[in-house]
Amino acid sequence: MDVTRNVTTAAAYFPARKSLPALREASTACKACPLWKTGTQTVFGEGTSRARAMLVGEQPGNEEDLSGKPFVGPAGQLLDRALQAAGIDRADAYVTNVVKHFKWEPQGKRRLHKRPNQGEINACLPWLEAEVAAVKPEVLVCLGATAAQALLGRGFKVSQQRGQVVSSPLAPVTLATVHPSSILRAREAEDRHREMQLLIEDLKVVARLLADARRAQRS
User: Fold this and answer.
1) Confidence band of 214 (pLDDT split at 50, 70, 90)
2) Closest CA relative to residue 32, chosen from 97, 133, 101, 96
3) Which of 70, 130, 140, 167 has minimal Cβ neighbours within 10 Å of its Cβ?
4) Domain architecture of the chain: domains with CATH
5) Closest CA to 47 of 100, 95, 89, 97
6) pTM of the model
């Protein structure tokens, strides 16, 4: 996760002690990129430092921006259902995003998601690096192309490599799947059902990996 040189990054706001509570508190003052000006607040990750799986999305959405919590909107609720169907205890998962502020553009009274650019991603990556270091997840899951390409390289294609275990220094096991918001955008109910099942199958891979790791620890 190389940060582009000559770009102000979140590392300038790091606390001396890099525990999750200290990082979360420090992140509230982050102005490493211009998104702090339009976001309501920083949306840091959520979960225990003992979480065995870390799931990383792109950025908070409208509901997350207002509540200050990640994955609480429609996409987050869909993710919760998929995790449950895959047999993953939500308490075993730490959820976060590559970018910690909501990037949006107005459409009438609505605030529509706008994809973060590379400079914004680079500026924010140190927060995610610190979260990974604090949690030390056994399995890291990238949700969607932005997260996958930020962490696994610009050439990574979720459409071709989803559900496949890939080599990464971030965690013992790393893989990518679609972001749950992509399922919500599907127009037909049949398409949404099919994509939901595929997401569940990818998360079942995560569940099996966690089970294998636990058995190995006990043996």
Assistant:
1) confident
2) 101
3) 167
4) 10-214 (3.40.470.10)
5) 95
6) 0.94
